[in-house]
Amino acid sequence: MKTPIPRSQPDSAKTPRSLWLGGAAAWMRGFSLSLAALLLSLSSSYATAQADKSIQNPLRTVGEVSLVLGRAYLERGGDRDLIEAGSEIKVGDRVSTESGGHVHVRFVDDALVSVRPSSTLEVVRYDYDAAKPEKSTIKFELSEGEARAISGDAAKSARDRFRMNTPIAAIGVRGTDFVVSANSRSTRALVNEGSIVVAPFSSECSIEAFGPCAVDAVELTQNTLQAVEVDQTASAPRLVANIAERASSLAENDTATGLAIPAEIASTANSSPVSSDSADAASSTDVYVESVVNEKVTAEVVEASQTIIGNSIEPDVIPEPLIDFTPSLALVAADTSESQLVWGRFSESSAAESLLAVDLETARNNREVTVSSPSGAMLYRSEPNGARVDRNLSVVRFDLSAAQAFYDSGSGVVAMRVGGGDLELNFIDRAFATTLNLDHVATGEIDFVASGAIADGGYLRLRTDTQRVSGAVATDGSEASYYFEQILDSGSINGFTLWGAQ
């Protein structure tokens, strides 16, 4: 009988040649898979690189001019040509206008920019991918003049990658509509919608960076008649009252043309671009546009004080101008040379108290520290006889000299108007009482009312679950000052005050 031949042999019975062939086959299969993965990775990297190259291509069109009034120019690669409606805008382009010039640009993400008369705006970078808007990067540079910007998809999706630089400050956005005016010495901005963050350039806020800066920054929100201002003489931005610029910004309504002029003259302005030969006419048009809006705003402001009788309008008694104890300019060393009480701040501290505080070295000149605020500002006092208050003081009433107050809604901080206040120190009962009249469009009128104790050394102290007062009185009773806080149903208020004895 023949012995059957086995179909296969155990591994121990395989020949060296069969083992080598099996290993080679396995290696080839692994190599093929690795090669395929490598080629796929290289292909993906190449596609990504090509996409990035396409996005950052300086010759790529990123916007189009939708309206031109007066004489304006487009500068590109050393060439300077008259700009006209329909002109393409590319990265690196610079739009400049003469005194009667006005240019509107719509960008690929539906952002809108208006370059106003006597202005120069450069598109430094505009990286936008509709498929990945959150990876956008945008930077403008307003070297002089005024511009209005309404955020598009890129700025709204990548707020930390949007920046408008001026010669001395950086502006970041929170998805917004804002107006900026700038020159080599100062920058001023206001918000029509949303909010902006403004900060001066410093070692912590470089001109090369993107997005808002956090150091010495002030955030300005909508629904306020205030503007934020930065100049070379101040270490941080300050909030100032502003109505004229807001009226100017209202002259441009968001219509199909972008930032269009009023309807009564829109057909004339948009029927054809104004040529360089029509500069005077365009200038007149601009003046008319601004005049119409200013008259409208003025009419709205005084409407409450007018009585309509038949077809005539007779003005009632014109109300007194609103009083605001907030100084228009920050205090400097000369302002405090004769003061016994002076707030001092560290250079890296918040700008919230900048108007009533000077640098630390100036504040502590021949003065001693008394109390401090949560932001780090410290109140210094002249103490010729030590921290002892005149024993002959009984009840002293004070007039408000200056104040600065803020409303913090949790989503932004705005300056409030300080309309007045009272302060009484009763050294007999060792107690104080104070009121402040505050106002803002977001809160309405608010009266800060507080009372607390006068501690040894003439320190004003109050701390409850909802209120805080921390201050001091001059040792001769001639001056007083305090920091205050109060929690509201929605948000909180805080600020600084300076007082003089009656």
3D architecture notes:
The protein is α+β, with helices and mostly antiparallel strands. Among the domains are: 61-249, Jelly Rolls; 333-339 and 388-501, Porin (Beta Barrel), CATH 2.40.160. Helix content is 18%, strand content 42%. The strands form five sheets. It has a 17-stranded mixed β-sheet that branches. Strands 26-27-28-29-30-31-32-33 form an eight-stranded antiparallel barrel. The protein has a four-stranded mixed β-sheet with strand order 23-22-25-24.
Name the descriptors:
alpha+beta; Porin; 7 helices; single chain; 17-stranded mixed β-sheet; 8-stranded antiparallel barrel; 33 strands; 502 residues; Jelly Rolls
Secondary-structure blueprint:
Layout: H1 16-55, E1 61-69, E2 72-76, E3 79-82, E4 88-90, E5 94-97, E6 102-107, E7 112-115, E8 120-127, E9 137-150, H2 153-157, E10 162-165, E11 169-173, E12 177-182, E13 186-193, E14 195-200, E15 218-221, E16 226-231, E17 238-241, H3 244-249, E18 253-255, E19 258-260, H4 263-271, H5 279-302, E20 306-309, E21 312-315, H6 333-336, E22 341-345, E23 357-359, H7 360-363, E24 368-372, E25 378-381, E26 395-408, E27 413-426, E28 431-440, E29 444-455, E30 459-463, E31 467-473, E32 479-487, E33 492-501
Parallel strand pairs: 9-10, 22-23
Antiparallel strand pairs: 1-4, 1-6, 2-3, 2-5, 5-8, 6-7, 7-9, 8-9, 9-12, 10-11, 11-14, 12-13, 13-16, 14-15, 16-17, 18-19, 20-21, 22-25, 24-25, 26-27, 26-33, 27-28, 28-29, 29-30, 30-31, 31-32, 32-33
The secondary-structure class comes to alpha+beta
Unreliable runs: 5-14, 41-56, 243-248, 253-319, 348-353
CATH fold name of the domain at 61-249, please? Jelly Rolls
Quaternary structure annotation: single chain
Strand tally? 33
